[in-house]
Structures are given as structure tokens and as C-alpha cells.
Description:
The complex is a heterodimer.
Chain A: E1 4-7, E2 10-13, E3 19-25, E4 31-38, E5 42-51, E6 54-57, E7 64-66, E8 76-78, E9 87-94, E10 105-106, E11 110-114
Parallel strand pairs in A: 2-11
Antiparallel strand pairs in A: 1-3, 3-8, 4-5, 4-9, 5-6, 7-8, 9-10, 9-11
Chain B: E1 4-6, E2 11-14, E3 19-25, E4 32-38, E5 45-50, E6 55-57, E7 60-65, E8 70-75, E9 84-92, E10 100-103, E11 107-112
Amino acid sequence: xxxxxxxxxxxxxxxxxxxxxxxxxxxxxxxxxxxxxxxxxxxxxxxxxxxxxxxxxxxxxxxxxxxxxxxxxxxxxxxxxxxxxxxxxxxxxxxxxxxxxxxxxxxxxxxxxxx
Amino acid sequence: xxxxxxxxxxxxxxxxxxxxxxxxxxxxxxxxxxxxxxxxxxxxxxxxxxxxxxxxxxxxxxxxxxxxxxxxxxxxxxxxxxxxxxxxxxxxxxxxxxxxxxxxxxxxxxxxx
Lengths: 115, 113
């Protein structure tokens, strides 16, 4: 059971380049999400998905696209990278919240630098 | 007002000290509560859930006060390895179909020799 995996761990891009951050989970969670974490800003939700074929925007979606073709995978695409997208990106998954002990699991993160 | 608020610190304490972090939340319908720990340059990881009656896990004690919408984390006998950022997390099963988890900005703890 690998939990949540992310690739790559580090990436340097030039302004205007595109790339895809990969995320996969093997816990059969239907809910998956992408966050970015910047100094002093905490975790900010970019996009999320509640199942294959269903995605929605979070707090800071501009500049990012997502798709969810399978329960396991939830890639994040940067279509035209900008320096403002320099950040640490975390993918996460969790079960449906039912008011109990359900919690969220994070991947190890991708550190992205856009020059 | 932020949905989940924490004192960002930093808290600098000597080894062996007792330190407490507080967190307030604005949604009175919130149903689940957690403390996460995030080490430098690592992902957040669950430290402990917070139960209505309060709960302990070794040197860590979590308390919940629903009336005041307040959560606390107490760390006794601090170790150097406790140095990290502690995130308060509040869950609400209502609203969207899968519920919503809201993260505080985190409290930075540094334990020094």
C-alpha cells in the first residue's frame, strides 16, 4: 500500500512551458485534491475531484487544469507556466467525510520553480 | 474572519518544556477535528484526531471546546524532534457531497537544546 504518490519531486520550468504533475493513490478514495503551499499562505486548494469524470475548482484554480479518468489518478496540468506558480504542490486523497475520523492523506509533494 | 485560525508563532521552547497551541474555527456545524504535523519540506501528516471528550497520545493531549469553537494541542516534555509546523484541521461533512476539510495556516514550533 503506497498511499499517495507524486512525480516528479522537483521540476524547473521556463515561463510559458507546460507540464503535468502526476498523482496516484491506491486507497480507493474517491475524493482527490491538489493544493499549493507558499510561505505565509498555508495550503490553498487548487482543484478537487469526487470521482472519475468529476472535477471542480478550488480556491486558486487559474492557470491549472485537471482531469480524472480513473479513481487512482489525478494529474495537474500547467498549460503555460508563470513565475507566480513557483510553489510546492501537494496531492491528497480521502474518503467522504461523515463526521467521524475520516482524514486526508498527502503525497510527498512536488517542488516547482518557474524561471 | 478565516474559517480556521491559528497563532502562527513561532514558538521557541527548550527541551522538556510544555507548550500549548490553540485554534479557533468559525463553522459551528463542523464535525471532525484533527492536528497535523508538517516537517520542513515534507508533506503534512496526521498527528491525532480530536475527540469531544479530549484525548491523549503519549506526550500529546488534544482538547475540543465546541461551545467556544476552540481546539487545543498540548505537548509535554518537548523533544528536539517535535520541531515542526502544527496544522489545525476542521472537517464539515455537510455542504458539498464529500464534505470539506479546512486547514489552518499552521503554528511553527522550534524546540532548542
